[in-house]
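Supplementary Note 3. Input sequence used for the single-chain structure prediction.
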Amino acid sequence: MINKSVLANGLTILTESLPHLHSVSVGLFVGNGSRHEKPHERGISHFIEHMLFKGTKRHSARELAEIVEASGSSMNAYTAKDYTCYYVKALDEHLDLAVSVLAEMITESTFAQDLIKREKQVILEEIKMYLDSPEELVHDLFARSILGEHPLGQNIIGLEETVESFDQETVLNFYKRRYVPENMVFVVVGNVEHERTKKLLNECLGHLGGLLTRENDIWPVAKSGEIFERKDIEQAHLVLGTDSLARNDKRRFALHLLDTIIGGSMSSRLFQSLREERGLVYATYSFHSYYDEIGYLAIYAGFSPSNYEVVSSLIIKELLDMKDTLTEDELIRAKEQTKGALVFSLESPSSRMTRLARNELYYKTQISEEYVLEEINKTTLADIRALADYHFQKDRVLSYALVVPEGFSDNPKKLFWGV
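The predicted structure, written as discrete structure tokens, is reproduced below.
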């Protein structure tokens, strides 16, 4: 059973009771990510995520880690473009500990200047590691190619120059703007009682104050663009795609099915065409991203540089042909794969925790698995064909990013909706 409460200070609490478990997944989700940063703040959301693990008024970073791990629990966090998550997985008998540790991190982190200085060096090393990973880099370059200088088009980790500039005042000012109760959702899934959890959180976080500073967000606009970067690597890495549906679009369930057909599995069109039939790639897949105002649908492929033209041409041809060649068998298979993935995810308490939080952050309500399954089941082949036609036309946006080895052509073939 899912229960929801809102404390007097605006903090939302969600619990889902699964009495057959002997564990709890405890998550604090903050409606803040890289999309909420100004240009000089790029990477600060991710930086704050790191800083919350670096010590509080009562405990050092080491002591926090030892307290959590001595109970058999694990703790971690991640930053996305529109939210940040801090979570603990614990035995149900240690729920109080999990809640109190997260609450202490949120309310008592010191953000000491010496710790900020040290953590900047850690993140600068993380940036270097990221730049050494072309499979990751090419995805961020694609986002920039299609969404430009809008915050959604920028990476999460930030730039060396912005991270270098962070000091205690900058970090605390941003933290106070965004880390307020009305912008937080606390979720617990597992062997948990809602009223007990509510009481715990009221004791730990009920005193937390602050008002959310609402920025005048610039509406993102997709454009055709290209970004080309060389690295000391062996393979070429390509991501290409077009703008797609916003998060609330009712066609999003059909989009998920279309994505699955294009490149969501080993039986998908791209995997079969590029890898199984021609041996041109090891890895290829499609993916889609949703935001409040916009989304995008894209394809990744890694291949030998000499195969750039043939691989890119095959991808574009496959997409343009999609609306006329989709079959009922493909749709049936995609439906079963999608339903299976949903059901499998529901067997994971951590996945259920994230699902509850995202539904609350994005939709302000819970979208049941029964509703999702119903929407998937009633999607028709005509729906999928219409969506393919909507996305893949010669007058649509086509953006791409290409990361290639040194020595690759100075003038690679430009990609467009044509072959």
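The mean pLDDT is 96. The two ends are 53 Å apart (CA to CA).
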